[in-house]
Structures are given as C-alpha cells and as structure tokens.
Amino acid sequence: MTPDNLTAPARSGRRPFGARPLLAAALALGRDLSPFRPGAPAPAARPEGRVRRYLPLVLAALAAVDLGISGTLITEGQPGPVRALSALTAWAQAPALALALYRPVAAWWLSLTAALPYAIGAAHLGVAALDSAGPWPWTAPGLMAHLVVSLIVAGRVRPRVYVAQWALTLLVGGALTVVLSPRVEMNGLLPWGLLSAFGLVVVTAVRGWLDSRRELRKQEALTEFERSRRALLEERTRIARELHDVVAHHMSVVAVQAEAAPYRVAEPPQELSDSFGSIRENALAALTELRHILGMLRSEEEIPDNRYTPQPTLDNVGDLVANVRGAGLRIDWSVDGTPRPVPQRVELSAFRIVQEALSNALRHAPGCRVELEIAHGPSDLGIRVANSPVVTEVRHRSGTGHGLLGMRERASSLGGSVQAGPRADGWYEVRASLPTRLPD
Question: Measuring CA to CA, how many Å separate 47 from each of 6, 62, 172, 200, 210?
Fold first, then answer.
C-alpha cells in the first residue's frame, strides 16, 4: 500500500467532519430565522403594573399609526401610482412595530417584505416616481420603520440572528439594486446599513451591560445568602459550644456521682442502689440526646433525625412510663384504637408531649396519681395526661415555664393543638391532638 493510499482516507474523512458543524450551525440559524417556529422567540418578561405592562404596546401602536399617515402624506401631490405604493408600503409595515414586541422575527420579515412592492413598482414607474418618493428601496418613513424594527429585534434575539438579519437586509437591497437598476439620486441602502450597524453595536453594548448587571445582582444575592448562612452556622456553633460546656459537663458529673454513690455506703439498701442506677441511666440518656442536638447545631447540612441516634417513638412510651414509676409516680396508662404507622415527626412530637406532661406532674405534684391515654383515631393521634392534686407540700423551684409552650409549639407545627388546665375535680389535664396525615 502506497503512502498516497494511506493518507487519502484521512483527507476524505476530515471533510465531512468539518462540514457537519457548519451544516448544523446553518440549520440552527435557519430555525432561529423562521417566523413560524412554535413558541420562538418567547415574549419578554412582563413588568409589574398595568401601566408599565401596556405602555410599550400603546407607544408602538401610536408609532404604527404615525408611520401609516406619514407614508401616505409624504407623496401628497404626486401621481396616483406613487401615492398608492407609498401608502401600501407604510400601512403594511405599520403592524410590524407592534408585532416586534411579541414575535420579533415575524415582525422583521413583515417589515422587510412590505418594502418589496414599493421597491419593484417604483423602479418600474421611472425616475420621476423615485425622486418624488425619496430614498429607495424604502420611503423615508419606511426606512426609519425598518430600522426601529431591526433594533427591537436585536434586543430580543441572539446576536447571530440579528447579525444575519442585518446581512439579509443588505443582500435583498443589493439584489434589488442590481436586478432593477433604478436610476435614483439617493439609495437608502447605504444609510440604513450604517445607521443599523451603529444601532446594533449600541444594542449589543447595552445588552452586555444589562447581562453583567444581572449577573452581578445574582452574585450579590448569592454572597448575601452565603454570608447569612455562615453567620447562622457560627451562631449555632456558639450555642452548641455553650451547651456542651455547661449542660454536658453537669450531666456527666451527675452520671459519675450516681454510679459512685452506692459504693460510698457499706451495704446500701437495694432501693437506694436502684434509685442511683435510674439517675445514672437518665443522665446518660440525656447526654446521648444532647450529643444528637449538638451534632445538628454544628452541621451545615439538613440532618435526618436518625443520623446520630434513633429518635424516640411511641414504642418508647413504655420505657418512659417505667422510668417515671421508678421516680415515684403512680401511673396507669392505656392505648385505645388500632395502632397504625404515622409520620416520624408525629411520633417524635407525641413522645415529647407525653414526656413533658409526665415531667411536669413529677415536678409539680410528686407522689400523685397519673392517667395516660393514647388514642389512635382515623386521621389523628390523641394524647391525654391527667394527674391528681398534690398530696404533699411542694417546694416551688424557679424555672422558665416553657414546657407547656414547647408542647403547643410542637403541636401547632404539625397542624394540631394542645389544651391544658385544671378540671372541676381538682385534677390537672393535658390534651393533645396531632394529625397523622401531614401535607407533603
């Protein structure tokens, strides 16, 4: 095989490779230039307010009427054919001014083709007709109208489209000049080409400036969002650090002291050992949940509830009841209805409400009798916690009093409700209703 045979396939293979992108670009440009392309180009964003929304259309309609009247009157006193051609061109171009606001490519084609009857007819009528009407292949109003339409289109389409339209206009005008060979004092093609080229440069510069401003505003908004997010993360980290330094330290001390306390007494009673064991277990459980909360506060991402430790559910209510019984509460509890799967948020909120209600009873009415009822309804979950009046004098402790507020906030975030207050028989009752069908 000769070297020529070796290199020939390579040369033949490069030609379609180079022609294919050019063909694809030509087809894409043809689609962009088509006035019948569905939905292209899209209308500009509608401004707010009725006046600002319709003001461009009103101005375009007034300009179209002015174009039609000017194109009719500019040839006043001239022969009938000249006046008819000028008026026909003006009123045919007039709708393009308004149409350019909604379908710019179609408006450009309308403005260009509307000038053809005048250009062809005036060229056939002779020199007198051309000189009386002004520049050719447009009338003076038609020249300005096509310039305005071209600039409106340039503000709405891609640069390659309005550059192609500018070149097509010059090509059509040049072809008319060569084919018809009109003897005119002023050919409007050159002034239009210079004016439109200058206008397109200005439009391109303005579009680039607007795009840069839009991108700058977007970056500023993104920077502000990141700054706010960083400030929030720093605040959450500070809170997590304070919680760790204060609460975690004291809870760790409680757990260690509860574990070591039985060994400080020779042969302590079993009840005392069990009580200290319960204290230690509660302290360790509080530390575990505190670590979970600290992890969420320090994390920049949204964290699932089960990332650090499984969150308590209704299945853990039995352990909670056993825990408060060990602390001295006499509690009777029951579950009504058929348990069914409920969203995790509902189960967590239900557990926290029961936990807070039992803690309040233990704190404010030690040694009382408590009734706990959980009712599974068709579309909601009912909770009732009631405690008997205080049987012994209680030393009031200072506190924030946010327990009941927290229960109501949990319920309201799910679309539920919490009612709490004393009953006629002296008991204190907390009722909660939580929907089990949450919106997505």
Answer: 64, 20, 36, 24, 16
Nearest to residue 142, comparing CAs of 119, 170, 167? 119
Q: What is the pLDDT of residues 334-346, one digit of tens each?
A: 999 888 888 888 9
Q: Taking the CA atoms of 156, 161, 166 and 171 in sequence, report the sign of the dihedral they define.
A: negative
Q: Where are the strands (E) in 337-407, listed by range?
A: 369-376, 380-387
Name, in order, each residue with C-beta under 8 angstroms of 375's C-beta and a sequence gap of 6 or more: 335, 336, 337, 381, 382, 383, 384
Count of Cβ atoms closer than 10 Å to residue 296 Cβ: 17
**Measured over all CA atoms, what is the biggest interatomic distance in the chain, rounded to whole angstroms?**
131
Compute, in degrees rounded to 10, the torsion defined by CA atoms 132, 134, 140, 142.
80
Buried b (16+ CB within 10 A) or exposed e, 268-291: eeeeeeebbebbbebbebebeebe
Asked if 270 and 277 touch (Cβ cutoff 8 Å), the reply is no
Contacts of 285 (CB under 8 A, 6+ apart): none
What's the token pair of residue 202?
């200005």
Residues of the chain with pLDDT under 50: 1-17, 39-44, 128, 303-308, 400
pTM above 0.70, yes or no: no
Rg of the chain, C-alpha, whole Å: 42
3-state SS class at 235: helix
Return the axis-axis angle of helices 140-154 and 50-73, rounded to nearest 10°.
150
Structure tokens, 57? 């259309």
Quote the CA–CA distance of 215 and 210 in Å, as a whole number.
Answer: 9
Task: Supply angle C-alpha 299, 305, 306, rounded to 5.
Answer: 105
